[in-house]
Amino acid sequence: MLFYLQLMQSNIVFYIRTFTLLCCLFSLLACSNTAVLTGIDVLSQGEFAPLSGKRVALLTNHTGVDRHGQSTIRHLHDAENIELVKIFSPEHSLSGELDIPLIPDDIEAITGVPILSLYGKVRRPTPTMLDGIDTIVFDIQDIGTRFYTYISTMGNAMQAAADGHIRFVVLDRPNPINGIDVAGPILDEGKQSFVGFHRLPVRHGMTVGELARLFKVEMAIDVDLQIIEMRGWRRSDYFDATELPWINTSPNIRSLTAAILYPGIGLLETTNISVGRGTDAPFEVIGAPWIDGEALASHLNGASLPGVSFHAARFTPDASKFAGEPCSGVRLTITNREIFDPLRVGFEIARHLATAYAETWEVDAYLRLLGNDKTLQAVRQGLSYNEILASYEDGLNAFRERRHRYLLYP
């Protein structure tokens, strides 16, 4: 009898240990599927070998940090056998806090490295700015929309690096609104600008590293390009699946929700409506003194737009468009982001404004970020979403095909 009791105890211990081991294994697998290492994390783990012996200019801002919050500036400044010579900063400054037309040069407070603004007198590094540099390193968090200017700054710097025979290294980061969904019209040829660096759709579904590869080939930028790839990121991931700290990428992108809404709602801000700048919820509310918010909410809720609901809202911006003026409009609430399409929502708002407020809404100003004449005409005429989609679908499908050769992640 004692033998059988000892055998049973032995089996129980065995099963408990096996179960514990399996739980640990599953936990490790779960972590490996969610914990993302960005380019700076990977570079640091490799002891900065690709930059050994280099004189570096770092193009970055406040989003350039590792997964523990340590800045890329400090990493490169403190690394052995790397000389951090200069820092280049984009729109909104190195701190990401300024929302002004011209950002001045400065000095980085901790390291004493000079900060040269690429959103001031120039938007592309000059030959003088590149003196003494053999490598430019780019580390900025993008948000996946064509007219967000950080990718334009990257493209400009790539061209300058090519002209100066300077190496260009991208420390890759996630596309926070996922790397699968691609949507919106392609920028018309001839409409390239600082808010439209290349002929991309509004929502490109690519990382900055992938975009750099695309720019190099499609824009014939003859630059020595290296991408320090992420580890653990999957194209289907939204930012909150990465276990990385969220950092407001600019003064008015204050959440992942705002970033998801931005491709559709951001298009509207060049017209005479407020997109919530100067409120506590930029890009989550829209309105104007001349809009009937109750009527707009009723129309949008009746349009069967998946994954979103609308509520009439009143707000008074304290800055930007209609500062100090009471506005009526709607608040947008994403109810299911897996089926939500920000471009469809933006176009439904635009086509309604074009018909219900034809004498008031400045539809021509919609073109500045939209960048596609054919689509503007479809919106101006108040055509259905399917008809608006048809105005750019061929170009979008062609982009989906050509982007595949530049993708780095499953």
Descriptive overview:
The protein has helices at 2-34, 39-45, 72-78, 150-163, 208-218, 256-265, 293-301, 342-356, 367-370, 373-380, 385-390, 393-403; strands at 54-60, 82-89, 106-107, 114-117, 135-139, 167-171, 225-228, 285-288, 308-315, 327-334. It has two domains: 53-249, Rossmann fold, CATH 3.40.50.12170; 256-391, Alpha-Beta Complex (Aspartate Aminotransferase, domain 1). With 410 residues, the protein is an alpha/beta fold. Helix 5 links the parallel strand 6 (167-171) and strand 7. The protein is built from twelve helices and ten strands. The strands form two sheets. The protein has a seven-stranded mixed beta sheet, with helices on both faces.
Shape: globular
Largest sheet: 7 strands, mixed
The H/E string reads HHEHEEEEHEHEHEHEEHHHHH
If you consult CATH, what is the topology of the largest domain? Answer: Rossmann fold
Number of helices: 12
- List the domain count as a whole number: 2
Task: Return the CATH class of the largest domain.
Answer: Alpha Beta
What would CATH call the homologous superfamily of the largest domain?
Answer: Uncharacterised protein PF07075, DUF1343
How big a fraction of the residues is strand? Answer: 5-15%
Rg for CA atoms: 24 Å
Per CATH, the architecture of the largest domain is 3-Layer(aba) Sandwich
Average pLDDT taken over every residue = 93
Going by helix content, strand content and strand pairing, the class is alpha/beta
How far apart the termini lie comes to 58 Å
Q: How many DSSP E strands?
A: 10
